Amino acid sequence: MTSAQKYFTNLSKQGNFLFKRLASIKNSIPSYKVVVIGGGTGGLAVSSTLSDVLGKSAVAVIEPSNVHYYQPLWTFVGAGLKKFEESAKPIEEVFPKNADLIKNKAAKVDPENNTVILQDGQQVKYEYLVVATGIQLNWNKVKGLQESLTKPNSNVTSIYSADTVKSTWDIIKNFKGGNAIFTMPSTPIKCPGAAIKICYLAEDQFTKNFVRNRTKVIYNTAMGKIFSVEKYANGLNRIAKERDIQVNLQTELTEIHSDKNEAIFKDLKSGESKIFNYDLLHVVPPMGPPSFIAESKIGNAAGWVDVDQYTLQHVKYPNIFSLGDSSSAPTSKTAAAITSQSGVLKKNLLDVINGNFNPTVAAKYDGYASCPLLVGRDKLILAEFSGYTLKPMETFPFDQGIERKSMFYLTKEIIPEIYWTRLLKGTWTGPHK
Fold it and tell me: Which superkingdom (predicted)?
């Protein structure tokens, strides 16, 4: 165990000890004005503001992780443009000073009794609940994927995990040619543009390494389009054609035979399966809502927290709100979407707490999302749009459907700084606010 790992482990033990000690001192179940499940982007953006407004120890955040990751940076890490360490900070370093951190995992919510049951059986009471647990990565939904990722000297990788993203750049830079295949599943995923971004970045690197002429680059996506918004899809299709990247729509990865470097894909139109031989395989795993949401009966039919898509208030329990990847709001699951959602949620939740909430004049989330589409090692299409209407919602006074170096610099250097210093602190609620 490294010194850093020991440090984080000790912090976790201290957090759990203090929480248990607090419960024993009170001789009762700990109770808070607001409990936030999840210390990711949405959870911290909300709890930072609420804990300042409501006062010290009025807000608790349930989060088991010792490290907070800025995951949009992992595309840059996988392409060798950023160091992995730049994407990580200890949770205590970014945690709001007026909130209580409960180092544990939520196992179930009892909405009838305003209680969260933790993984170790402890309970936490709330007056108001915010669910911001993010999305669950279902690696086991692709047969052979987990074994392929952990196999020594594997040529299968993914930028969607803190463990696997570290190997992505080594696999890309050492690639000598052959079939380089990049996948996209049919399920909702976080940062959906990342699947195609790493494909374009890898292709650019193959050119720089003089192996492009002996490489076939293939993008197999289970979706019916290369991107959901037509304007940006047109740009991505143009670039794919210019750079001879084969795009296969409605083609979903179902199985990997790493011993034979074979990937099995299902044609979603015909239902037939097809074998693709690969020399490099980048996989975006299927994803879904954390299982406790459905088990707690606060989810919709698909298992996402069932909220009004505009106010982000639960459709059945008015003291529950949700944002980010775990909510049912039918928009793109991106960090940029959370920026706007956090502002709406905080306004509406505080109005509920203060008895001033009126659904007809409440703050409304318009579906805003953004996806910085890296198409090269110094070029980027900045997609900004409403996930509700699929219409562009651009910030800058020029055509953002065209790849630009300025947008690459903005995404690589400026947006991460805004993330760490403003979004997590609760002071950034999007470019259109």
Answer: Eukaryota
241 phi/psi in degrees, rounded to 5: -70, -45
Pull the structure tokens for residue 328. 């049912």
- DSSP-derived letter for residue 404 is B
Catalytic position from the list 61, 189, 371, 415: 371
- pLDDT value of residue 28: 79
d(Cα 219, Cα 25) in Å, to the nearest integer?
A: 57
Q: Is the pTM of this model over 0.90?
A: yes
Q: Is the pLDDT of residue 3 over 70?
A: no
Q: Answer for the pair 118, 107: CB distance below 8 angstroms, yes or no.
A: yes
**Contact, 283 vs 144, CB < 8 A?**
no
Are 426 and 48 in contact, with CB atoms under 8 Å apart? yes
What pLDDT does 432 receive? 73
Report d(CA 289, CA 328) in Å as an integer. 9
pLDDT exceeding 70 applies to what percent of the chain? 94
DSSP 223: S
Residue 2 has pLDDT above 90, yes or no: no
199 catalytic per annotation: no
**Distance from CA of residue 15 to its chain's centroid?**
25
How far is the C-alpha of 268 from the C-alpha of 273, rounded, in Å? 9
Instruction: Kindly report the backbone phi and psi dihedral angles of residue 124, in degrees, each rounded to the nearest multiple of 5, phi listed first.
Output: -135, 130
